[in-house]
Amino acid sequence: MFKLSRRSIGVLMRLSGGPNLTWVENGRTPKEKYLHDFTYHGQELSVTEAKNVLFQHLDNNGSVDLEKDANGMAKIRLNNPRFKNAVNVKMMLDLDEITEKLSQWTDCKGAIIYGADGNFCSGGDLKVAKKMNNAFYGYAMSVYVGHILDKFKKLPIITVAYIDGAGAIGGGAEITTACDYRLICNAVDTTAIGFVHSRMGIVPAWGATGRLTSIIGTRKTLKILLESRMLGAAEAMELGLVDGVVATLMDAEAWLSRKVKPDVNIIRTIKRTVQCYENLQETTRMLESKIFAPLWGGPVNQTAIERHMKHKNK
Description:
- Helix content is 49%, strand content 13%.
- The chain is an alpha/beta fold.
- The strands form 2 sheets. The chain has a 6-stranded mixed sheet with strand order 1-2-3-4-6-9, sandwiched between helices.
- Strand 2 (73-79), helix 4 and strand 3 form a beta-alpha-beta unit.
- Helix 6 (135-153) packs antiparallel against helix 13 (282-292) and helix 8 (208-216) packs across helix 9 (218-227).
- The protein starts with 5 loop residues before the first helix and ends with a helix.
């Protein structure tokens, strides 16, 4: 028969505050144990340290390209068409550099981000995910890419994501939340936006959960993260996740041009003022990284990566 020592009974009674006992394992209640087991407790990294960790897995495939015009408009192209513009380490570094360039371009009024060859972004590169498939790398990636997208979101310009082709999937969907507006192409019925992370055994890692709650509210955010579905144009519009439907990239550029008619300093002041009310706290972002990391490389995530890798090879 299992026996409790007097000391153990005393601990249980003090925790419970009465006759109902609370089980304690290794000094933790079940709630404390759960929070501990599903939170990253490894080496903490600064943004620079996280960048250096990812840099070890740099390859020369893919890029993010910047085009600027004389009217203060920028176009940012996600360019990895072989894998429907899936994001790899090289592209993360490029986006970081482009964001810094845009922050220093004082005549810039707006920017549109889109994908090469008629597809927006299929998420993170699965080859990279397979190489860096443990909590430490997941934490490093979340810290670094989350920082880039936070910085992009805070740019004093108006930003638009143009979603076309196969759509914005997983990490691609997260990128769109760092933009002020999202436009979806209606050229084909299959274009959609999907926060499909739970299918991969993970949760959003790059700050999208917080941004989504600002865009569509808590209940709708729970709905789309739990259901993990691809959302077509009509449903995404109904949820308030996208702001308009257009036929081409040129149409999306015209849509943005209408938003940025005021003087550049008025636009930048309006954007900065709005940001004062919706800036995410850095501590919240870092907590998200620690919550995400244990899932990255976990058994569900590994199985999902293998399954999708096999599908890609067919």
